[in-house]
């Protein structure tokens, strides 16, 4: 059976495509649907179904636009209550796609409507399971997201449901089945996913901590809930968009692709209260940027960090990109529901500087300069990596404020002393630098290459949690 995984690295997201005898189906598509339609066109196939494993939290699905463009029927598992036309399937229901079959297996736990789809080939042989966020490679879905939408669905209740789903619905299946999850390493929908994006169910039974045969429900719940970090604030907002519906991507793109002259851009920023988002890389941003803009570079996990750092998906946004990159930025923002881009600076930052407009910059130092500054005790060192990264190894005396919590801990950063910021490689620390600059901090220096570069120097480092850890 031919199953094509369509993987998008910046969201660690996997959609799936199957085709048989002129009929096709898509599982958990992203919002930009043209690639899926083009894929079906190459096979001279009609997309018959769009299967959704659950109401996603970390991205806005493309199911509605696929339905609009292709006439495909949207399918959810039992108990789903979408605010638009869709099939809410019964447990065990079978859908025909050409000579293939797709069987519904209701697996509540990550969310109550979470569903696994069994793929059955033209010979009637069970081939694999599209598991959504129920089962990952090396992990299972976190059970604490639905409670942000429905309060009485506690994480303990959902974890219990997930235990039952895995034991009663997934683990009895054949070891030969291929597991096709919705996410890989880097997604915030789990805590310890493998870099591998498929595996056999048999191997997962041997290696996945959550599938240990001798684990009690109490042990499962405790282990699953231990170490969960706070989910990004945009997650419940995306869930509601996926439940209730949303504007078509074409409408969003048409509104956002509005080139603004320097004067028009400045006026829009002053009049609308829009957030100015600069998507250039850290090096170029540091040399010069529009005052009060923040930096989240397109070359990194852009959509994820936008979701982490911009609290509301309804926030109006003005874009500053490299010329020609505005459409990519708008598309990647829309993947996580940030649909209110109202325009972009025509010509990019160069047009701003060409007009002799005022701009800001961020000082940077390399690892050798950092070592000298550290030895001379010239600045406070702030490490904006995750707590787990910090705990594994860090500069002695550094203060840990994870980037996604910086807005709640601004008071920890003195304004009357020099500050040095670093992350692992320089991407996150420039985001942090831009936020502090926007909020009035001036004595900031960013470390080029981050901790990876610092690790090559003689700066004292500790493998134990430092008492100056704040979070």
TrEMBL record:
<dbReference type="Pfam" id="PF00581">
    <property type="entry name" value="Rhodanese"/>
</dbReference>
<dbReference type="InterPro" id="IPR036866">
    <property type="entry name" value="RibonucZ/Hydroxyglut_hydro"/>
</dbReference>
<feature type="domain" description="Rhodanese">
    <location>
        <begin position="375"/>
        <end position="463"/>
    </location>
</feature>
<dbReference type="GO" id="GO:0016787">
    <property type="term" value="F:hydrolase activity"/>
</dbReference>
<dbReference type="GO" id="GO:0050313">
    <property type="term" value="F:sulfur dioxygenase activity"/>
</dbReference>
<dbReference type="Pfam" id="PF00753">
    <property type="entry name" value="Lactamase_B"/>
</dbReference>
<dbReference type="InterPro" id="IPR001279">
    <property type="entry name" value="Metallo-B-lactamas"/>
</dbReference>
<keyword id="KW-0479">Metal-binding</keyword>
<dbReference type="InterPro" id="IPR036873">
    <property type="entry name" value="Rhodanese-like_dom_sf"/>
</dbReference>
<dbReference type="InterPro" id="IPR001763">
    <property type="entry name" value="Rhodanese-like_dom"/>
</dbReference>
<dbReference type="GO" id="GO:0070813">
    <property type="term" value="P:hydrogen sulfide metabolic process"/>
</dbReference>
<protein>
    <submittedName>
        <fullName>MBL fold metallo-hydrolase</fullName>
    </submittedName>
</protein>
<feature type="domain" description="Rhodanese">
    <location>
        <begin position="270"/>
        <end position="361"/>
    </location>
</feature>
<dbReference type="GO" id="GO:0046872">
    <property type="term" value="F:metal ion binding"/>
</dbReference>
<dbReference type="GO" id="GO:0006749">
    <property type="term" value="P:glutathione metabolic process"/>
</dbReference>
<dbReference type="InterPro" id="IPR044528">
    <property type="entry name" value="POD-like_MBL-fold"/>
</dbReference>
<keyword id="KW-0378">Hydrolase</keyword>
<dbReference type="InterPro" id="IPR051682">
    <property type="entry name" value="Mito_Persulfide_Diox"/>
</dbReference>
């Amino acid at each position: 059976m031919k199953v094509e995984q369509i993987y998008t690295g910046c969201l660690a997201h996997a959609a799936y495509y199957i085709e048989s005898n002129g009929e096709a189906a898509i599982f958990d598509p992203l919002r930009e649907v043209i690639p899926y339609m083009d894929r079906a066109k190459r096979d001279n196939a009609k997309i018959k179904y769009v299967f959704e494993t659950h109401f996603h939290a970390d991205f806005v699905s493309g199911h509605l636009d696929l339905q609009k463009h292709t006439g495909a029927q949207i399918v959810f598992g039992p108990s789903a209550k979408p605010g638009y036309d869709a099939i809410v399937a019964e447990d065990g229901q079978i859908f025909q796609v050409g000579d293939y079959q797709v069987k519904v297996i209701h697996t509540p736990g990550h969310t109550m409507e979470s569903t696994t789809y069994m793929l059955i080939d033209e010979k009637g042989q069970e081939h694999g399971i599209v598991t959504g966020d129920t089962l990952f490679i090396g992990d299972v879905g976190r059970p604490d997201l639905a409670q942000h939408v429905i309060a009485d669905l506690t994480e303990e209740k959902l974890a219990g449901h997930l235990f039952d789903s895995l034991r009663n619905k997934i683990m009895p299946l054949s070891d030969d089945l291929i597991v096709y999850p919705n996410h890989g390493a880097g997604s915030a929908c789990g805590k310890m996913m493998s870099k591998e994006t498929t595996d056999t169910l048999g191997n997962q039974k041997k290696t996945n901590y959550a599938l240990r045969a001798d684990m009690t429900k109490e042990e499962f719940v405790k282990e699953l809930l231990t170490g969960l970090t706070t989910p990004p604030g945009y997650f419940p907002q995306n869930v509601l968009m996926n439940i209730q519906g949303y504007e078509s991507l074409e409408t969003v793109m048409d509104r956002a692709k509005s080139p603004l002259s320097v004067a028009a851009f400045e006026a829009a920023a002053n009049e609308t209260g829009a957030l100015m988002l600069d998507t250039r890389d850290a090096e170029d941003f540091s040399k010069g940027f529009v005052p009060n803009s923040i930096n989240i570079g397109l070359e990194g996990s852009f959509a994820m960090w936008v979701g982490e750092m911009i609290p509301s998906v309804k926030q109006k946004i003005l874009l500053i990109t490299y010329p020609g990159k505005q459409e990519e930025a708008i598309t990647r923002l829309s993947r996580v529901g940030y649909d209110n881009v109202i325009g972009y600076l025509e010509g990019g930052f160069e047009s701003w500087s060409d007009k002799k407009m005022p701009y800001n910059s961020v000082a940077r130092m390399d690892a050798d300069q950092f070592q000298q500054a550290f030895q001379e005790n010239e600045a406070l060192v702030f490490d904006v990596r995750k707590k787990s990264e910090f705990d594994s190894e860090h500069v002695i005396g550094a203060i840990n404020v994870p980037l996604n919590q910086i807005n709640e801990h601004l008071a920890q950063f003195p304004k009357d002393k020099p500050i040095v910021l670093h992350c692992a490689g320089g991407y996150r620390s420039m985001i942090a630098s831009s936020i502090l600059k926007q909020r009035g901090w001036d004595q900031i220096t960013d470390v080029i290459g981050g901790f990876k570069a610092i690790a090559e120097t003689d700066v004292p480092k500790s493998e134990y949690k430092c008492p100056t850890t704040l979070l």
